[in-house]
Design brief:
The protein is α+β, with helices and mostly antiparallel strands. It has one domain. It is built from 2 helices and 5 strands; from the N terminus they run αβββαββ. InterPro entries: MoCofactor_Util/Proc (IPR052698), XdhC_CoxI (IPR003777).
């Protein structure tokens, strides 16, 4: 997997377009809700291709790996999902936000 930092929404959409034109399947992850000191605001994006490459950020590196894993499932099934991460859920010891906030991320296939 690879990523580069600091992308605008336009950069993310351009990346998705390039990957789609190259024949790759793509998913888009979007922060839809935050609580507390979440590291990225609502509207932040991460685009993922079927090879696990990604661009953008939904958490500043805290949960990107888990989001990419779920996005690969979304690409395979073509079914959107909503993910929630924070310090008070069952995944807190596996993946969590070091800042103590919570985020909700919507992951959808791009067609």
């Amino acid at each position: 997997m690879r990523s580069t930092a600091r992308h605008t929404p336009t950069d993310i959409l351009k990346t998705a377009e390039v990957w789609l034109k190259a024949g790759k399947s793509v998913a888009l992850a979007t922060v839809i809700e935050t609580w507390g000191s979440a590291p990225r605001p609502a509207g932040s994006h991460l685009v993922i291709d079927s090879d696990g490459n990604f661009e953008g950020s939904v958490s500043g590196g805290c949960v990107e790996g888990a989001v990419v894993t779920e996005a690969l499932e979304v690409i395979e099934t073509q079914k959107a999902t909503t993910l929630e991460f924070g310090v008070a859920d069952e995944t807190a010891w596996q993946v969590g936000l070091s800042c103590g906030g919570r985020i909700k991320v919507y992951v959808e296939p791009v067609v």
